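We treat protein structure as text, and this decision shapes the records that our systems exchange. Below, we set out a record of this kind in full and without editing:

***
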Amino acid sequence: MGQSSVRREGARERAPHARDLGWDETLYDGEDGEAGQGAGAPRSRRRGGGSGDGDGDGGGRSGHRRGGPRRRARKTGKKTGKRKVLRWVAATLSLLILGTAGAGYLYYEHLNGNLRGGGRAGGESGVKKGAANALGDTPLNILLIGSDSRADAKNVALGGGKNDRDRPALADVQMLLHVSADRKNASLVSIPRDTVVPIPECKDKDGKSYAATTNRPINESLARGGPGCTLTTWEKLTGVYIDHWLMIDFAGVVSMADEVGGVPVCVKTGVWDKPTARVPGGSGLKLPKGTTDVQGEQALQWLRTRHAWGSDQARAKAQHMYLNGLMKKLQDQKAWTDTGRLMGLAETATTAFEVSDEIRSVKKLFDLSMQLKNVNLKRLTTATVPTSEYPENPKAWVQVVPSAADRMWAMLRDDIAFDKNGDPAAGKPKSSASPKPKTPAEEPGSFPVRVANGTAGDGQAAAEGRAGTMAGNLREKGFTQAESLRTAEPRKDSVVFYPKADGDQGRANAASVAKALGLPDSAVRADAKVEKVTLVVGADWREGSTYKKPQIAAGDLPEGADDKVTCMDVYSVYQWNGKKS
């Protein structure tokens, strides 16, 4: 189906741009809010249309011109709170040249009204945001989610499945964008959608609870509590605190690709992801050999293609190529500083994305984008966690390879670059100085500590007597109330839990235990189920009284994880010679 027909059938109604509401670059000038004297009607704005498959005619939406008298600003004696908001928008967004709380404020509020969102987390992961480094900086982690929702006509038109309107949406695409604390490098990590992982207990926006499960694929996390549950699932799996989530549906992908004028992607041979005698379905993607700027429905087809690439792992590579191309296009277009471009981008993005509530405003989203705009794309590393067949359903599902996944999660937690380029200390793990906690820890002997043996977490037999040994070690260090537990708590990594209800004091006490043993700050976790500070000695610490952190060097990714490619290989059955058939 061509993109133009999709846009006319059930597409989101286009809200007016600032200029449609009476705004133009020459409308206001001066600090006092006087109306500008420049002549000329508001300019029309034209956006190119997208294309369908290789044989399609494409489509588009032309701009239009609206006349009418220019609005004149009202003078005010002093800056109101609203006017301060407008001044901020004018100075930093370059979105509108604002003088008063008039049409500009209405447009600013219009953009805010476009935004949809929900709670950051859907459950309890126990992972807390890490302390800042000596410069006061922390890494930035954003979970990007692609929803396969068919809840409205436009998404059914794009994705098919009209009988799936009432089915809860699944997280078809999941990527974690990690930007280093110094904002000099970034990593984009995918987990294939059919990867079986533990999904924690979650609640959706209506308060409905979903029990925890250990045998379902990660894409179902979205259906078990919304995007907040997907975020909590990632946090629980990786131990990485995730600041925000952004979610986009089929129609959002189409509109964003059109807004930037297409995204460059590349294939080594022509590709046609069509149904075959053995494999039904297919995305319909049809591209000639080489580089193509995909727009509209074709962009969505690229992101959804799997059969032509041969696997979910390869599908993630194609998705990473697309995002790399999108970010480069935005940087080349100077999207953060060009007023006209930013206006169109703001209108499209605020309708295309759903966001977590703590960034659900134009100001906060712009602040977030400003942290991303200067990331050197040469230092953006894309990776997919290695997987293997899931024994109970090997034809459909996969599971992470533990050793590879654990290394990748550790690199994210410790802010270790996935690449070595441009890093004078490449090959050496980064270290950061953490400030003292705001709440001081209590005296070591004044609070109880429980110690559990978790050394069987990697499948090996538990190290006998490990909990008792470590409890004794803690008592020698002044934690006189330390006692070992008889029950085992197998896990791969060593952690110190504290009761969530104890808040900052509990965290400070747990952090003092971790520090005494050499455990990193990231090992301190809140848990609603524990009643006392509890050390779980994991499979990564089977001997010794002081924890020795595994040394991981910058760029030391597991084999097969780094998936950046220049052009996609095409599985032979789906290769296309470029001729009509």
